[in-house]
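RETRY 2/3 - previous attempt timed out on the joint model. Re-submitting the same 649-residue input unchanged.
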Amino acid sequence: MSKLTSLFNEKKHNLLSVFFTAGFPKLNDTEIIIKSLENSGVDFIEVGLPYSDPLADGPTIQHSSSVALSNGMNLDLIFNHLEALKGSVKIPLVLMGYLNQIIKYGDVKFCQRCKDCGIETVIIPDLPMIEYESHYKALFAEYNISNVFLITPQTSVERIRKIDEMSNAFIYVVASSSITGAKGEISEKQIAYFKRIEQMNLKSVLIAGFGISDKSTFNKACEYMNGAIIGSAFINYLSDNGSSTITKFVGDILD
Amino acid sequence: MSYFVDKNGYYGQFGGAFIPELLHPNVQELEDNYLKILESESFKNEFRDLLDTYVGRPTPLYLAKRLSEKFGATIYLKREDLCHTGAHKINNTIGQILVAKHLGKKRIIAETGAGQHGVATATVCALMNLECIVFMGEVDIKRQAPNVARMKMLGAKVVPATSGSKTLKDATNEAIRDWIGNPEDTYYLIGSVVGPHPYPDMVARLQSVISKEIKEQLKAQTGNENPDMVIACVGGGSNAAGAFYHYLDEEKVDLIAVEAAGLGVNSGESAATSQLGEVGVLHGSKTILMQDEFGQVTEPYSISAGLDYPGIGPLHAFLHESKRAIFMNATDQEALDAAYELTKIEGIIPALETAHALAVLHKMKFEKNQVVVINLSGRGDKDLETYIANLKDE
Ligand SMILES: Cc1ncc(COP(=O)(O)O)c(C=O)c1O
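RETRY 2/3 succeeded.
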């Protein structure tokens, strides 16, 4: 059983995940960020692979990616950092990155290194379901890697059912029709959408993301979803405060 | 071998639709409808009518006598530079704006490099009374100022792309991000044979009017509809796709695609994608793109904003891999020289993009009576500043 599945078996509500871009703000911050997040009670972590052209990301994550890349971050280094942490980090780590990096790195080598680092879950925003099925499903299965699919307010019921069928980690419920970025509030329209998804009685764990930024939006999302992911707001926090006071950021959300 | 898109949206291993789930409904809607629309009588009539009466088609196929004499071949120029707005780009925008109307879209977004596609999009939006937003790299806004002014005059909003290299690739990223945020009312009017399926096929079909006319005109002028060779420049590849389209299955016709070498293919300042690129995914399509050892997209360089793109359309990636087309390239200087040359001996100032296609004449040996068609994709008005700045007093 994967670490994520064990987590979901134990805990079904208020799951908090935090996203950060590896190599930001400093090249070697991966360890301190992951350990601080774990120690402050985050349930699982998304490690973003910085990319030159992150199509689904807003200015905050774009900026963190370009800083990380100019710091010299690359896929080899990220895997080295994660491999070094393998024994000491208990909570699940999920890799999030764009497909071109994986193609260039080599699909098989990518999977092998994930396995070496104990990574069992990936999110590849520009890998659509049809391409996943025909080119990646079998390979990922061989390495015990689960792929996370996204759904949005525009995703049809039929497609959501199919995604639910294909998912064995969680479904990433994109909270609004937009790129990533911290927003103020969760609107009535978003709540109606969360309710609609909740009422579908899907088998998969539902985690909301995109625009979840603080205690209030996190709690609101958790009324309907199993948990939520905070990304841009955390990156903004790191920009302003560096990596030494992460516990405070998480504390403010969970207290 | 088929050079046309297969039912899954692929040209060999290239193509597909590598898009975030957020774009799935938009792209699916287009895929479900584009062929139905393009093949409907009402679309065909409207498209033909606008091409004839608004764009100014058919464009002439001009026998360039002095150029022919100079190179010892029979050289024809397909005069896309005489299209309304000054380049082939409008063939595509007229077609897609009709598609957008059929789909009931109210808001049009586009990316632009040289500004030609932006102008062509702003023009058809003015014509159809639709809102128009054009994303353009900050660097390109500076080097193509006249086109920025034209777009604004046409009523378009020009939004600077300030991420990455601040050129065409980044403008495309910004357009895609906007589309993600506006999935219902917005149509993304892409400017070349790039992007997720069905865009490459749709744009190639709309631009294929170029080779359809070349065939008819050559037949009328020489008795034979097939030349020995067709030459076109490739940024994303739309003018080349249009000029090659009806010759793809005529294996005796050599197809020459010309990329921008910038300061030289191996100078580190180049946009010769087929020479420098590797297989990957860019802007929703599996293709050949310029990237570093970790798959980060690298910043291309060319003096010509319209060729300053790190990828090529999937059709061209396939034509390259299958060797159906021969890929050549020209440097900034070679393109400038070719532009001055054409201006002097034929009285035609070509666009800088087009000048790359002309430049390779110097790199080939012709046999007498060899028939060569060069797609003169655009005119040089927008590049006058660059031409004047580089003109050496003689
Ligand atoms: C005159 C002209 N030719 C060629 C191009 C390159 O585009 P494509 O390769 O799609 O024809 C451009 C792009 O702006 C252009 O303006």
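Chain A has twelve helices and eight strands. Closing ticket.
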